[in-house]
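Input (structure):
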């Protein structure tokens, strides 16, 4: 084929009554102007662009073309459902045998498809799909803490964790009944301090600014004297004292461990290195103890039924069959096992902590016991050492490193971790701070009865005071001065007090706080009921006294 042209493409629904998953393709194809005929392989691919990209759908058909006419039902093998025809632009690429036609053909809607688009939008709300909205009964359990849970433990239990649903995990307080100061610490009362000392012992700690001046020579110090002078001494700071050469030495003799010397001229001395160790020979830095000590990691076992009879210089063992008249094998110091009969097995007594009767493992370390060589154990200016880590490094801080547990603080141990925390309390005292979310429940002063009447924003506090021959003005003053800042109860307050538990006792003649006008005040009358218990008394022309009065105020 030299040239292929797709002339006509139509889209027709093949299923009525529902959105179809198949479409028909009709095309006229010519080769160099002549209609195509015969059996051909036709592949149709759907693309999202006019050029380039990967196909989203592919289908291949073996068809018979007559006079250039091609008829295909697309979707008969792989349905053209909503995942393919999703409303975005689609372009059909047609390949006849090995030739791909160009350009790709754009797919357009037919009336049925236009209607299906309207039907699709009817399943949306404001253009959004149902999956865009949350269900009415959806929850956020495990993602957010629920509002309003009481995050507290009962009794003496302590909070040790927080569950995914927002509740707290409680456990018994694991704090010890007593504190003890370990090595390097001192305990005074409930205060722990580092045990600093001027001289070093196994249970004291060196200060961060300590020095070894006078004990060790400083690193890098020049221990040389000028030409013509000789060393006469070493100072405590590591420097040397020099003086002009003098004296009457006639011979330089090499002593034990030294070779060389002379009786005249220049004398040269050297260390007497030796291959084998003697008390007057020094070992080289690259010496070894092969043949003297067993090398690390040597396999010291024998085949089954044999026993070690010797250890060779290279650390290997010599094995032989069992023989002899040994009756007991007893494990001595540093050895475990043994037996009085049968097969006896001995093993080295390895131990985590050192004793004179246990052996250390070849991979043991002294981390946490000795400081590593070359560790920098100093802090920047203005900071101090707050801790020494197991690897020998120090932790520095400008904060106070020694905090005593005193007033308003508590010390507990939860899950093996010591914690110092603020001593929160439900009721206030000089030694217990309040929480940031604390509240003040309104309470009445001592001696007042509490009445939580309907419509009253805070409880009503009422106190009945019996006092013979008390005048109204004196009663009003006494409520404020003598009874915690109260005032004579009003008519409405007494209605609450007489009708709300615990109901106050009504006593005839007791003063109330309402004034009728400048010359008249109120007190309880003789009818003495909750709907009519007030009477008007003139206080200008007559000295009026009563057997007592009622004081009121709001709970604080």
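Output (sequence):
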């Amino acid at each position: 084929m030299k040239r292929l042209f797709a002339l006509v493409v139509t889209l027709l629904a093949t299923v009525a009554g529902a959105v179809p998953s198949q479409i028909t393709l009709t095309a006229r194809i010519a080769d160099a102007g002549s209609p195509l005929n015969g059996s051909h392989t036709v592949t149709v691919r759907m693309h999202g662009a006019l050029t380039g990209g990967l196909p989203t759908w592919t289908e291949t058909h073996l068809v018979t073309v007559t006079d250039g006419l091609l008829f295909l039902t697309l979707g008969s093998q792989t349905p053209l459902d909503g995942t393919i025809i999703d409303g975005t632009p689609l372009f059909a690429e047609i390949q006849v045998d090995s030739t791909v036609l160009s350009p790709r053909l754009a797919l357009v809607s037919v009336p049925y498809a236009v209607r299906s688009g309207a039907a699709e939008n009817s399943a949306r709300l404001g253009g959004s799909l149902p999956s865009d909205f949350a269900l009415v009964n959806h929850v956020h359990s495990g993602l957010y803490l629920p509002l309003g849970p009481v995050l507290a433990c009962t009794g003496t239990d302590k909070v040790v964790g927080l569950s995914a649903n927002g509740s707290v995990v409680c456990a018994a307080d694991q704090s010890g009944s007593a504190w003890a100061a370990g090595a390097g610490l001192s305990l005074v009362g409930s205060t722990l301090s580092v045990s600093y000392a001027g001289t070093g012992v196994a249970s004291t700690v060196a200060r961060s600014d300590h020095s070894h001046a006078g004990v060790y020579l400083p690193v890098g110090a020049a221990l040389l004297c000028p030409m013509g002078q000789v060393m006469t001494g070493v100072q405590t700071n590591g420097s040397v004292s020099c003086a002009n050469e003098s004296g009457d030495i006639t011979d330089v003799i090499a002593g034990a461990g030294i070779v060389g010397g002379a009786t005249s001229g220049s004398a040269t001395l050297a260390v007497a290195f030796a291959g084998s160790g003697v008390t007057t020979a020094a070992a080289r830095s690259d010496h070894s103890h092969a043949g003297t000590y067993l090398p690390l990691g040597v396999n010291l076992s024998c085949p089954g039924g044999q026993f070690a009879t010797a250890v060779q210089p290279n650390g290997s063992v010599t094995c032989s069959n069992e023989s002899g008249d040994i009756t007991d094998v007893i494990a001595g110091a540093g050895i475990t096992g043994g037996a009085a009969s049968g097969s006896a097995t001995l093993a080295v007594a390895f131990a985590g902590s050192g004793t004179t009767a246990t052996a250390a493992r070849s991979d043991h370390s002294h981390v946490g016991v000795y400081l590593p060589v070359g560790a920098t154990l100093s802090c920047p200016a203005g900071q101090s050492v707050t801790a020494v880590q197991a690897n020998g490094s120090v932790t520095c801080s400008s904060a106070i490193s020694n905090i005593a547990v005193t007033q308003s603080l508590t010390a507990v141990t939860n899950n093996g971790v010591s914690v110092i925390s603020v001593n929160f309390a439900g009721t206030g005292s000089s030694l217990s701070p309040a929480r940031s979310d604390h509240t003040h429940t309104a309470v009445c002063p001592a001696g007042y009865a509490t009445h939580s009447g309907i419509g009253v924003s805070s409880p009503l506090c009422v106190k009945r005071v019996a006092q013979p021959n008390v005048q109204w003005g004196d009663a009003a003053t006494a409520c404020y001065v003598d009874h915690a800042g109260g005032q004579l109860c009003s008519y409405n307050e007494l209605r609450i007090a007489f009708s709300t538990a615990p109901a106050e006792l009504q006593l005839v003649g007791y003063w109330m706080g309402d004034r009728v006008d400048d010359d008249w005040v109120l007190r309880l009358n003789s009818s003495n009921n909750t709907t009519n218990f007030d009477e008007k008394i003139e206080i200008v022309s007559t000295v009026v006294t009563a057997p007592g009065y009622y004081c009121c105020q709001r709970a604080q």
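Notes: The chain is about 5% helix and 30% strand. The two ends are 102 Å apart (CA to CA).
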